[in-house]
Structures are given as structure tokens and as C-alpha cells.
Amino acid sequence: MNKSDKKRNISISGIFIAMVMTIVIISTIAAMLIFVQIYKNAMEQSAVTSGTQISGQVLNTVENYTNEMQNVMQQIVLHMRKGSLEDLAFIQNMVEIRSDIVAVTTYDKDGNLLDCWNNGQELKRKSADHAVYTDDGSDDGRLNISKPHVESLFVEYYPWVVTLYQKISAPDGADIQVNMDIRFSDIANYIDNVGIGQHGYVYIADLDGNLIYHPQQQLIYSELKKEKGTHLKEGTHKESDAIYTVHNLSNCDWKIVGVCFVDEMITAKVKNAVKILLIMLCGILVAVFLLGLAFSELFSAPVKKLAHAMRGFEKNTENFVFIPVRGTTEITTLSSSFAHLVVRIQKLMEQVRQEEISLRKTELKALQAQINPHFLYNTLDAIAWMCEDGRNEEAEEMVNALARLFRISISKGHELIPIAKEVEHAKSYLKIENFRYKNQFIYSFDVEERCLLYYCNKITLQPIIENAIYHGVNQMVDEGEIQIRIFMDQQDIVFQIEDNGIGMTEEQCSEILHQEASDRVGIGIKNVNDRIQIYFGENYGLFIKSEPDEGTCVTIRIPKIEEDTDYGQK
Question: Which is it for strands 441-447 and 480-489: parallel, antiparallel or unpaired?
Fold first, then answer.
């Protein structure tokens, strides 16, 4: 990089900081001017809207809860009027299911306690002086509900409740009053958590102006605070220091009063400033757009070129040629680093490719080198035994078969041999094994002639046949039979080795397919499967199908390989 290039490079961080500072300064000044102008006009409206919305939400919540309690009370009264055992059991179940119902009680006209349904608390006395409430007997659908009070019916249990009450005629014709004590803490906790602004609040009063619940009622009862809005009617009332929003409940003589203080509602309504903000925002956007164009020329265009180069490198890593991208200092640095990265990755890919080729050759040689010493020892021992017994012709035939077996096994170091050679190798092996096992089994070959000219991995059939003899027919009382079939299946060559031996379970098939080679098992089925998949991929290989006492069929699938294919004779 020469000196002129260094002068043309501009720091991205410098451009970004300058642009952000310009936008922030303009936006801040504009916002301050707007909010200062609209603050005085929006403050009162904000307070009214907040108070109306929040107190309306409280109204809906309290009204829904009291409506639900009214429905419960109607169900209890309905069952109490019937008076059957099932109806009385329903009342007890309702008390046990609803955790907010403390007790359901009935009183006679003199206030004497008749019955009490509760959740297992012990009654302290049979009557309560405050148990009977005034009920004019009208059926206008509104709740008869008391002020919050401490329940005093039970021993060492004093919950804070409100009482729903109703006078009815008992099944025996007597006039009684039904009380349902409801835990008031749920409503109280909800009211305590509601706020309008930082210091505003919501409270409940009755239509006569008496407090039902106030979040600051301790201060009110101790006369440290006075509440001015208890006698206000439904609607919004603006005072000098506060705004009161009053909502009457439709189902009882309660009202919800929301209180918010004008001097703390400093949050301005944005709606009144939208038009002014839009005009100023357009100016800011124009400025940002112009700055963005300049920024794009200095940063975005080089970044796009670099990103395009990276995508090209992903698609064609081996043959990719990178042309350095010029731009800001950071872009130039990234371009140089990417160029070095491309060169290193291409070198590493070539190195890995060569190592994979070497590793595959090493694995193939290791797999090919596993020859069963027991097989060689037992075969030579059998030949020696035949010579001593004077069976020279059979010994000579066995020696010739062993020679052919090892000649084909060596195959001049080639991994792939013609299928005809592989079949000859299998026949030589079967002849030797038939001598050793004294004709305990018979075998047959069914090979399509057109398959013989194609190539396969050497020593493919012999391990499978060995497994069929050792694990299958050798353990049979009757004569065993091994059938070898080779045929074409579209673009593949299929080998099938089937025996009528004792068969295997699915677990045994999996174990044989995955166990490593050993002296006793010879080259091993896993060896055959590994060599095929190393050469031709995981779509090819070995598959075992077996049933106990029915026999085993091993299928080997390889592609059709000709002598002059890319697999060659490595």
C-alpha cells in the first residue's frame, strides 16, 4: 500500500461517530422543542386518560369478580332451598373447591347460627352479633354485600372477608339468611398494585361515600390523610391538584375511584405532536439519506464486493482467485486478511486431500493384511495328514487349491480384481474347507456370465463363506448347503451367499456386522463392509437377513466397475 492509498482510506469508526452525533443532536433538539411546546396542553389530558383507563380496568376486574361471586351465591341458594343431602353436599364441595370462599352460614331471624360450611376450621361459637344484615327483600339483581371485616366465627382463624347475604325461605318454610364470606385479600392486593402515575392510586367506596377499601386507609383512619373524592358521583372531576375518575359498579352499591395528581403527570401525549414530528422527521430523514449515500460509497459498496467474493469462494473454493477490494482502512485490512485466508484454506484442502488418499491406501492395506493363521495351519495340517495316509491325489488337489487361493489373494497388490477371479478364489476356498470338514456341506454357484468381466474388491466372498461355514452349517446335524449367486441389478452387481444353517437373531447379525476381525473369525464381515464403503461410499456394502433355525442370506451390493474406470487398480 502506497502513501496515496493511505490518504484516501477513511476510518469507518470516524464516519459512523460523526453521522450518529449529527443525527442525535438534530433529533434531541427537535424533540426538546416539541415536548416543551406541547407539555402544558398535554399534561391534563394525559392525566384524565390514564385515570379513566386504569380505573376502568379496575372496575372491570372487580365487577367480573363480584359477578362470579354472585353466580356462586345463586347456586348455593338454589341448592339450599331444595335442602336434600346431595344439595347440602354440593355446598360443602363448593366451599372446599373455591379457596376464596371462607365459609357459608345460615341464620334465623334472631341472628342465631343454624349451619356452617367451611374448610375444616373449628367454630368458636354458635352465633355472631353482626351476622344478620338489612335486606329489603327486593330482587333487582344487585348484590347485597357488606364492608370488609374480620371473620370471627372460628378458633384462631381470623381472615379478612366481605359477606354476600340473602334472605330466603328454608324447605321447612322458615325465613333464614344465607351468608357467604369471601376472602377480601385478593381484591385488596389487586387494588394495592394498581397505580396511576408515580403517586396516583385507586380505591373502593360505596354510593353513600363510605370507604370500602383504600390502599392508604391506615393513614386515613389515623387522620394523617383525608380523602376528598368519596362523595363524588360517576364521571371525571377536575380539582386544583388532582383529577378524580369515578365508575359505579352495575351489580352492587360500590364505586371505583381513581386519583391522579396533575403535578406529577409530566409524560406528554405524543399524538398531539405527531404532525410536527413528521415534518421534522422528514428533514432528519433527508439528512440521514444524504449521509447514507456518502457512507455507502465509502463502506457499503466495498463490503458488497467483499461479500460477493466470499460467496464465490464458498461455491468454488479450489479454483477461486481473489481480487483485492479497496476502500476504507478497515475494508482494506479485511480484504488482505481474506486473501491470506483463501490461500491458506486452499493449501490446507490440498494437504487434507493428499492425507485422505494416503489414509485410504493405508486402511486398505491394513484390511487386506488380515489373514487367518488358523486357516493356514489347519489346511497345511490336513495336507500333511493326507500325505501320511497315502491320499496323495487329494493332498495334491488341496495344495493346488491353496496355491490358487493365495495367488488370487495377492493379485499383484491390486485391490480390485475381476469377479471371475473372485469366484475362482471362493471355489478354491470352498474346496479346501470341504476337505477339512469332510464333506459336511455341499455348495453351488449361480453366476451370470455378464458379471464376470466387472471388477470387485478382492477377498469379498471368502469371509462371508467362512462365516456361513463356521456359524451356520458346521453346527448342524444334517448336511449343510451354501448357495452363491451373482447377478446384475440395474447399475449394480449383487452377491448373495445363502446357507441353510442354524441362523441368527437380529442382535447377532448386528454384532457380526460390527465386530472387529480376529484370528478365529479371519478377515471378518466388518472388514468386507469397510473396504467396500471406503471404495464406493456408504450407499454400498453388506446386508444380513437371518432367522433362527431357517438359515442366513448375506447380500453384497457394489457398483458395476470396469477395468478402465476411475477406481483403477490402485
Answer: parallel
